[in-house]
Amino acid sequence: MKQTSNRTDRKQGGFTLIELMIVVAIIGILAAIAIPAYTTYTQKARFTEAVLAASALKTDVVTYIQTNGLTVLTAADSGAGSIPAVVAATATVNGSSVTDGVITITWATDGTALSTLTYIFSPDSATSPISWAATGTGCDANYC
Length: 144
Description:
The chain is α+β, with helices and mostly antiparallel strands and 144 residues long. The chain has 1 helix and 4 strands. It has a 4-stranded antiparallel sheet with strand order 1-2-3-4, with helices on one face. A hairpin with an 8-residue loop joins strand 3 and strand 4. It starts with 16 loop residues before the first helix and ends in a 9-residue tail after the last strand.
């Protein structure tokens, strides 16, 4: 008597080498696009901390000008009236100063693309409403 096998021939499943190489290439292309975009995004988000520090000082300068009836900005300096001498130190903001109403925020030397950038708020005058111009080494297409 002849033995028969109940086994059926099955085709081996899986991916071919070319299919795997295509997937790896697609992932590489996506990573090449996503990583620089993510880096720019995180730097913009971190730079916001300097902008917020400058905004708080801007409010302090305006309050000092209005409460003291200043007509010239030369008296609006760090440590005068309600203007703090420095912004509370953070991991990213190295220092701040207010001289003649001009607010300067300096980024900490932290090894990032933002190291030592400055953000400067300049008032137009000491009379209301005060308009502010943002300048500095940190102001380019990505920031400010």
